[in-house]
UniProtKB/TrEMBL annotation:
Pfam families, A to Z: DUF659, zf-BED
Entry keyword Kinase: no
Alphabetically ordered keywords of this record: Metal-binding, Zinc, Zinc-finger
Protein name from the UniProt record: BED-type domain-containing protein
Length: 328
C-alpha cells in the first residue's frame, strides 16, 4: 500500500546494483570488475564491494573512517520509514476486518510512533550496547603499589616495636630464627585469629615444643649408638652470680645441649664433680660415650682420673680453648 503525502523516500541506489542488498542505496558502483564502490556521503572509494561498504558505514574497523554524520541521519530516517510501513500494514489488516480506513492512503486510526532521529554528533546506542561495552579498568601503577606496601610495613613495624618496648625485649631478638617466621605466619593466616594467651604459651605450646625437641634429639641418638659421642662439661657464672655447669653432647651430626646443673650451693671439689659426671654417663649411656672433655682445673682433673679408673674405656681430654686462654 502506497503512503500518500508520506516522508521522503530513501536514497536510490545506482542504476544497476549488483544485488538486492539494501546497502547499495548508500553507495555507487565505480568499477565492478575491480570491486570499487564509492560512498554517497563522503565520496570515498572503497575496495571490496558491498561488504567493505557496510564496514565503512558502520565504522566497525579502525582502518575504515566512518562516513559523515549524514549517513547516521539517513539510517534513522530509513528505520522510521520501515516502522511506519509496518504499522500501515497493521492498519490495512484492521480495515479488512471492518475498521474504517481511507481508500487510497493512511488510516486515521493508526497510532503515532515516536521516533527519535539523532542529531548530528549524537552517538547511536542500541539496546545491547550497555552489555557489550568494555569497561576500562584502571590498573594501579607500580608507584601506588609500592606506596601501599610501605604503609602496611610501617603499620606492622609500629605494632611490633611497641610490643618490644612495652615488654623490655631487646631489639636483637628480631634477629632470632623464629621472629620472621612469626610475622609471615600471621600474614598468611590473616584476620580473625586471636593470639595465644599467656596460659597457652606456658602450658600447651611449651609442651608441644618440648615434644618437638625430644624428637629432634632422638635423631642424634642413632648416631651415638653407631659412632659414639663426646661428653663436654663447661662451668660458668651467670649475671646473678650463680655457678652453672652445662653438659653438651657432640657427634658427627652436631652438638646437642643435654642438661644444666646449678652448683651454687655446692662445693666444687673433685668428689662432687666426679659424682656429677658419673651420673651424666649413666643417664646418656656408658656405651655411647667415648671421651669426656673438661677444662684443666685441678678439681676437674682429679674427677676425670677417678672417672677413667671406674670406666676404663673412657678418655679424658682437656679443653684446648681453656688451655689457650691460660697461655695468653
Amino acid at each position: 500500500m502506497a503512503a500518500e503525502g508520506g516522508a521522503a523516500p530513501a536514497p536510490q541506489s545506482s542504476s544497476n546494483p549488483p544485488s538486492a542488498d539494501p546497502a547499495w542505496a548508500h553507495g555507487t558502483v565505480v568499477d565492478m570488475a575491480r570491486r570499487k564502490v564509492q560512498c554517497k556521503y563522503c565520496n570515498r572509494i572503497l575496495s571490496g564491494s558491498v561488504w567493505r561498504l557496510k564496514q565503512h558505514l558502520a565504522g566497525i574497523k579502525e582502518q575504515f573512517r566512518r562516513a559523515s554524520q549524514a549517513s547516521r541521519r539517513s539510517f534513522a530516517e530509513e528505520d522510521y520509514l520501515r516502522r511506519i510501513g509496518h504499522h500501515l500494514g497493521q492498519g490495512s489488516g484492521h480495515g479488512s476486518s471492518g475498521q474504517g480506513s481511507s481508500s487510497g492512503g493512511m488510516s486515521t486510526n493508526i497510532p503515532e510512533v515516536p521516533v527519535d532521529i539523532p542529531r548530528d554528533g549524537d552517538p547511536i546506542v542500541g539496546p545491547l550496547d550497555p552489555f557489550l561495552t568494555r569497561r576500562r579498568e584502571k590498573q594501579p601503577s607500580i608507584f601506588a603499589a609500592f606506596k601501599n606496601l610501605k604503609i602496611c610495613k610501617e603499620k606492622i613495624g609500629r605494632a611490633t616495636s611497641r610490643w618490644f618496648f612495652f615488654n623490655s625485649i631487646p631489639a636483637n631478638a628480631a634477629k632470632g630464627p623464629y621472629y620472621e617466621s612469626m610475622i609471615k605466619t600471621i600474614g598468611i593466616v590473616g584476620k580473625g585469629v586471636e593470639g595465644p594467651t599467656s596460659y597457652e604459651i606456658y602450658n600447651k605450646y611449651l609442651d608441644m615444643e618440648v615434644e618437638d625437641m625430644k624428637a629432634y634429639v632422638s635423631t642424634f641418638e642413632r648416631l651415638w649408638d653407631e659412632y659414639g659421642c663426646t661428653l663436654m662439661c663447661d662451668g660458668w657464672t651467670d649475671i646473678t652470680r650463680r655457678s652453672m655447669i652445662n653438659f653438651l653432647i657432640y657427634c658427627k651430626a652436631g652438638t646437642v645441649f643435654w642438661k644444666s646443673v646449678d652448683a651454687s650451693s655446692k662445693v666444687k671439689n673433685a668428689e662432687y664433680l666426679f659424682q656429677l659426671m658419673d651420673n651424666m654417663v649413666e643417664e646418656i649411656g656408658e656405651k655411647r660415650i667415648v671421651q669426656v672433655v673438661t677444662d684443666n682445673a685441678v678439681a676437674f682433673k682429679l674427677a676425670d682420673q677417678k672417672l677413667m679408673e671406674k670406666r676404663e674405656h673412657l678418655y679424658w681430654v682437656p679443653c684446648s680453648a681453656h688451655c689457650i686462654d691460660l697461655i695468653l
